Structures are given as C-alpha cells and as structure tokens.
From TrEMBL:
Main location: cytoplasm
Domain of life (superkingdom): Bacteria
Name of the gene this protein is made from: coaE
Name the UniProt record assigns to this protein: Dephospho-CoA kinase
Residues where ATP binds: 11-16
Protein's job: Catalyzes the phosphorylation of the 3'-hydroxyl group of dephosphocoenzyme A to form coenzyme A.
NCBIfam families, alphabetized: dephospho-CoA kinase, PRK03333.1
Known EC number: 2.7.1.24
Species this chain originates from: Luethyella okanaganae
Enzyme class label: transferase
Location of the protein in the cell: Cytoplasm
Length: 205
C-alpha cells in the first residue's frame, strides 16, 4: 500500500486534486468526514464533548450543534485544544481501520488521505508522500467569497486561522500550484499520479 497525505488551506483546490487522483484509481479517505462520524449521536466522541462543553452544544435531536460548539472553540485556543484532544485520537483510530481495510482489499492500493489540518493536528501517519495543494491567499479569499458566499472579512479570517504556507511547505514532498487554470492543476495531479505509479512499481520489484 502507498499512502499519500494530501493537505492544503481552505479553498486551496485540495478537493480537486483528490478527485483527480481518485479518477486514476486511488482510494480516498476524507478526514473531515471521519471527524463528523466520530461525533455522531451515540458515539463516545459526542458523549465526551457533552461532558466537557456542556449540554448546550448538543441539539434537541441529539446531534452535535456545530454552531454552538464553534462559538466556544473558534476564538479560544485552550477550548479548541480540548476539542482536538477528543476528536483527533478518534479520527486516528478510525483512519487506521480504513487504511487496514484498503490494504486487505488490495495490497497495492494507493490511498489518498485528505487531511485539511495535517499541520495543525500534527498527523503522524507514516505517509509515503505528503502533497500540498497551494493557492495564494488572495485567490483563496476570492474563492470563498465567490463560491461559498462569505464576506471578504470572514473569508480572510478563515484563511488566517489556519497554518501558514511556510508551515505547510516545510512538510511537503510535492506542492501542486492551483492558482492557475483547472487544466493546469489537473496536469500536475496527472504527473503526480505517474510518479506514484513509478515509485510503487520500483518498490514492488
């Protein structure tokens, strides 16, 4: 099995790169989706969140009230650390199970682990390759405004709240520049896929 850690800031084009790799045959594991699964009703994760943050963060229907929780953790690093201490280990356990499942189904599987907060969460899976999707801050802010309807101020705050470009570049084996056209991003993803196939073939020989 060959495991790629794919990361990038909000609106950096990371999902576009992931989709292209999946089109080529990669197995996609999305950390954001796992983070939602580990706090679904009935999970240990949600029970712990309720215990730490109180009943106000759980709605009447028994689901996590993300808005209420966000109001607590978004502007308070200490509270955010408490939340991360609950969610990140649970995501780690679940992702490890999914890696094992992918390898059992195909020992030669190429897995893309899509982790927006790879830097912030200090994810330490043994990646064969770390890929960073990158776009300039002004491009990402523009995408958030035009595609997601955020105000310019809110968009800049979301971008600034994440790891810096320098922090991501420090862990990157490959940087895919998504500032240009979609076709340009796709061609870089295609070249990446060929590199991975070549490396996998050498490893298997």
């Amino acid at each position: 099995m060959y495991v790629i850690g794919l990361t990038g800031g909000i609106a950096s084009g990371k999902s576009t790169v992931a989709r292209r790799l999946v089109e080529h045959g990669a197995v996609h594991i999305d950390a954001d989706k796992l983070a939602r699964r580990v706090v679904e009703p009935g999970t240990e994760g949600l029970a712990k969140i309720r215990e730490v943050f109180g009943d106000s963060v759980v709605g009447k229907d028994g689901t996590l009230d993300r808005e209420a929780l966000g109001a607590i953790v978004f502007s308070d690093a200490a509270e955010r650390d408490k939340l991360n201490a609950i969610v990140h280990p649970a995501v780690r356990r679940l992702s490890s199970e999914l890696f094992a499942k992918a390898e059992a189904e195909d020992p030669d599987a190429i897995v893309v682990y899509d982790v927006p907060l790879l830097v912030e969460a200090a994810v330490d899976h043994p990646f064969d390759l770390v890929v960073v999707a990158h776009a300039q801050k002004k491009t990402r802010v523009q995408r958030l405004v035009e595609e997601r309807g955020l105000s310019g101020e809110h968009a800049r705050a979301r971008v600034d709240a994440q790891a810096s470009d320098a922090e991501r570049f420090a862990i990157a084996d490959v940087v895919i520049d998504t500032d240009g056209s979609l076709a340009n991003t796709m061609s870089q993803a295609d070249a990446l896929w060929q590199r991975i196939k070549d490396e996998s073939a050498v490893r298997a020989s």
